[in-house]
């Protein structure tokens, strides 16, 4: 059978007879890699552009249309020592990039306007205490207005829009007081300028926007970066399926290009990338990613298979069905929808702060005006003082207090291998006081391990590993991996459903089912782990058995201990059978566990804990965990998780260790503490500044100094989130 | 103080030029890969696709 690779889905036209493809590349991390890749790819004739993006770990390639097969770039990168995957930008990521650019543009406009208005303000400030003529001052004020008004109209858009959205939804957020402050400051300054007054606040208004935009941009940039990494990881998983494009001809195509009704080939050791029904073939499939159950299920004609299932022994032909047809998925989707609807909208710290803040500030301004009028001041003077109160309390520091910490904290988490899916995840994670773990794929590793490798003589184990290279069976793959085997044995023959055999130096070697190797008595040994898959190996008349199973994550025990030390409740809810779950729970020292739990049961348990006031962190990977991930206060899943679960979880962690769970909890707690500190700093600043404003002695100079001082203080304090302890357990 | 007639428009023009330069650099994608740009500045080699044209 002929297999081709089809990249046409990823290639797009770049105009002028050029074609363009983006590749996500693994392992690019320095300038050397960048130069090596660009030089290596440009050496291919007809390549017109090869440019590495080191931030996003991607390569953009352009070449003369029709002259090259994109597969050649991937092969070339492979020769250079990098694994590359074709890549398609998700619409979510594109939106983040566009938003990020827009904010940067606003920031640029605001920053340039601030600098130029400041240049005009400083002469006015110094002129006011020396010999400036009123006409000159008016001229400078008018010039400031000329710069500040259009700049604020443009650069203020992110705030005005968000404030308008909040007001139309009859709620309030931090952008409402910001917008009011900026608009009033500008409006009053124009009126004052018309009346030839001494003070105008154009500089304060536009500087406020600049500081706030810095915070916004940093926040957005971090989000964009997380998206880019998530996009790369999706490409690295390289989800393709072997689709029949003709009788006996198969093309390896991306999942996005597969439609219901297509027929795909599922070979042993492959993970199914689509939902469908078996139409031909017989095999065993591992559905642990779907149900949490580690026992293999028999698949034959008519058996439904789900994306994420691993095919174990035989080759299957699968007819692709639309996702919702599958009954199991429909049930999970229904539970997930319910859980998402029931999810009470979490009140972010920033929103809670602004809900308290806005009325207090606006009331203070109003009382100031009334107070001055009662005290006998003119309406004009009273209103000017009232607006000065609003300007000085405009939540510059308050607006920065939370996003800056979030940016720094998500950067720290990013470095320890945790990606954030939602903005308020840090706050919610910091409150978590009870962790529910799924077992399969979460506490255990998704791939199989040889548990008794140490009991087998090294040279025998190596031989078994080399023999295992000739089989696609996942258990064989695990043996080969564990033995670190590189060179397959020449002339090895695989007997479907039985095992592999070969003759080396006149001695027959066999690896496979115990019956295939004549090792039934050994395999029946009761001391072996009852949950493991037993694979036998024979060399001549010597017999050995290997016990293969999903092992616990290397640091699972330490992580559980670390969580206990932090006074966090722990329990295990698994869809797997009781003995397996019990063994894992005992090994980890977790007294609270339940086995054979359905998705609905998991939700019920979470609801029960919620009623008792616990804030539950759910950590799970299976499709069956998706509804409970949505139902929990906050949720995490490993990168190996099913699509649905990963999309539902608030945080995603990378790699084999479980330590990122603790690292994320620590980082988020530290971050929440800093957010609170920042809020107090901002409030403290207001307590100092407001009396000055109420008494009516605030000048634009004082406003500018106070505003930038408090903003810088808050930003510096946020940087402390970086030093969140690297020691995890 | 007549000098203001020259200095003020000059200052505004310089500021405007800076802004235009910034918007241009943003549009031409110079902020898309800040990590990479930091390294490119100190890289030894000319980018290969431009090298032949210069020699």
From TrEMBL, chain B:
Keywords recorded for this protein, A-Z: Membrane, Transmembrane, Transmembrane helix
Transmembrane segments: 6-26
Protein name in the entry: Cytochrome oxidase maturation protein
């Amino acid at each position: 059978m002929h297999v081709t690779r089809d990249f046409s889905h990823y290639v797009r036209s770049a105009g002028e007879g050029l074609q363009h493809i983006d590749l996500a590349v693994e392992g690019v991390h320095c300038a050397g890699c960048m130069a090596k890749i660009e030089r290596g790819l440009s050496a291919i004739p007809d390549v017109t552009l090869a440019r590495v993006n080191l931030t996003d770990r991607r390569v953009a390639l352009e070449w003369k249309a029709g002259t090259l097969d994109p597969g050649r770039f991937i092969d070339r990168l492979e020769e250079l020592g990098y694994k590359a995957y074709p890549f398609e930008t998700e619409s979510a990521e594109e939106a983040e990039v566009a938003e990020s650019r827009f904010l940067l543009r606003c920031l640029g406009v605001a920053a340039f306007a601030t600098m130029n208005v400041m240049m005009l303000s400083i002469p006015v400030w110094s002129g006011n205490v020396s010999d400036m003529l009123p006409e000159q001052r008016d001229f400078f004020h008018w010039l400031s207005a000329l710069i500040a008004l259009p700049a604020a109209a443009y650069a203020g858009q992110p705030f005005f829009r968000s404030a308008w959205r909040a007001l139309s939804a009859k709620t309030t957020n931090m952008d409402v007081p910001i917008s009011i402050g900026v608009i009033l400051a500008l409006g009053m300054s124009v009126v004052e300028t018309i009346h030839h007054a001494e003070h105008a606040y154009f500089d304060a208004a536009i500087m406020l926007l600049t500081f706030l935009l810095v915070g916004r941009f940093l926040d957005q940039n971090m989000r964009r970066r997380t998206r880019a990494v998530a996009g790369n990881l999706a490409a690295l998983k390289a989800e393709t399926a072997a689709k029949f494009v003709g009788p006996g001809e198969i093309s390896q195509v991306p999942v996005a290009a597969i439609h219901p009704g297509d027929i795909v080939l599922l070979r042993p050791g492959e993970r199914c990338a689509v939902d469908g029904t078996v139409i031909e073939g017989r095999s065993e499939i591992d559905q642990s990613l779907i149900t949490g159950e580690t026992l293999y299920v028999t698949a034959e004609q008519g058996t439904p298979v789900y994306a994420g299932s691993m095919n174990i022994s035989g080759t299957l032909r699968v007819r692709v069905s639309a996702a919702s047809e599958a009954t199991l998925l429909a049930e999970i989707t229904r539970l997930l929808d319910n859980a998402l609807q029931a999810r009470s909208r979490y009140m972010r710290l920033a929103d809670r702060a602004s809900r308290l803040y806005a009325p207090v500030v606006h009331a203070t301004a109003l009382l100031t005006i009334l107070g001055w009028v009662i005290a006998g001041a003119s309406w004009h003077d009273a209103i000017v003082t009232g607006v000065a109160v609003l300007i000085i309390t405009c939540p510059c520091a308050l607006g920065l207090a939370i996003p800056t910490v979030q940016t720094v904290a998500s950067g720290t988490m990013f470095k320890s291998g945790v990606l954030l899916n939602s903005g308020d995840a840090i706050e919610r994670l910091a409150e978590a006081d009870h962790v529910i773990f799924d077992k399969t794929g979460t506490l255990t590793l998704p791939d199989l391990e040889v548990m008794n490798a140490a009991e087998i003589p090294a040279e025998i184990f190596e031989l078994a590993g080399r023999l295992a290279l000739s089989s696609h069976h996942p258990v064989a793959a695990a043996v080969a991996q564990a033995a670190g085997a590189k060179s397959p044995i020449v002339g090895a023959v695989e007997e479907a459903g039985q095992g592999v055999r070969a003759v080396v130096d006149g001695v027959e070697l066999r690896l496979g089912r115990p019956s295939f190797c004549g090792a039934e008595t050994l395999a029946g040994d009761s001391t072996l782990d009852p949950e493991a898959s037993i694979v036998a190996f024979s060399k001549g008349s010597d017999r050995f058995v290997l016990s293969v199973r999903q092992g616990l994550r290397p640091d699972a025990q330490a992580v559980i201990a670390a969580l206990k030390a932090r006074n966090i409740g722990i329990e295990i809810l698994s869809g797997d059978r009781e003995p397996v779950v019990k063994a894992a729970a005992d090994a980890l020292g977790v007294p609270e566990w339940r086995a054979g739990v359905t998705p609905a049961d998991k939700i019920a348990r979470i609801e029960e804990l919620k009623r008792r006031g616990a804030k539950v962190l759910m950590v799970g990977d299976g499709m069956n965990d998706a509804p409970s991930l949505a139902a929990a206060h906050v949720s995490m899943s490993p990168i190996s998780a099913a699509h649905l679960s990963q999309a539902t979880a608030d945080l995603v962690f990378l790699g084999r260790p479980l330590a990122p769970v603790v690292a994320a909890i620590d980082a988020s707690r530290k971050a929440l503490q800093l957010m609170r500190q920042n809020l107090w700093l901002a409030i403290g600043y207001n307590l100092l500044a407001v009396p000055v404003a109420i008494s009516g002695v605030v000048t634009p100079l004082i406003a500018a100094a106070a505003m930038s001082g408090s903003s810088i203080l808050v930003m510096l304090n946020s940087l402390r989130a970086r030093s969140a302890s690297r020691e995890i357990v | 103080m007549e000098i203001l007639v020259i200095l003020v428009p000059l200052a505004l023009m310089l500021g405007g030029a800076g802004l235009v330069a910034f918007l241009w650099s943003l549009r031409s994608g110079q902020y898309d890969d800040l990590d990479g740009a930091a390294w490119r500045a100190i890289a030894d080699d000319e980018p290969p696709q431009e090298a032949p044209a210069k020699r």
